[in-house]
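Just wondering, does anyone understand what follows?

——
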Amino acid sequence: MEGESLARALLRFQSGVVAVFDALSAVRYWASEEFRVTGTQGELLIEKGLNGRLLLFNQAHPEAN
C-alpha cells in the first residue's frame, strides 16, 4: 500500500447514540494514533504499539482519562 488509507464509518447504537469511527493508516511513523471514535459527548482514542492506550476525552475529562 502506498500513501494514506482512511476508513470512516457512522455507528448508531441501540440507545440511538451516533458516533463516527475513523481509522487512518499513513506514512507517519511518529503518530501514535491508531483509531478514533468521535461522538457528540466525547471521543475515544486508541493508540497503537505495545504500550498503546485507550483514552477517553469528554467534558469531565478534557485532558483524557
About this structure: The beta strands are 5-12, 18-25, 33-39, 42-47, 54-58. The chain has a mean pLDDT of 79. The radius of gyration is 13 Å.
